[in-house]
User: Fold this.
Amino acid sequence: MSNNNINITTINELKEILEDDIFSLFQEFRSNAADIIKKLKSAADNNNTNDVLHLAHTIKGSSGNLGLKNISDISQQIETSLRLQDETDIASLISKLETSITSTLAELTEMELLK
Assistant:
């Protein structure tokens, strides 16, 4: 089972393996997400493509491992655009990523995976 934002199967597998430790993973992701978005915006504003690429790759990996599908997908779009040297939509993709993070964190709170 999955929706646009979250892969429920992945989360259930993590719950089975990690039990209550899963909560700290989502807390850490929430804590780091705002900082990563801030750094992404700054790097994009300064035309620092390497930093944007690195940050997008980092959030893609961590969100993918947690089953946060939409965040991972948008991060992949940022990476792909930069690798193709198409920077025209980077600012809008970062904005889209920020919106997705906000909605996904709200959904995780509703699922009682975040407090």
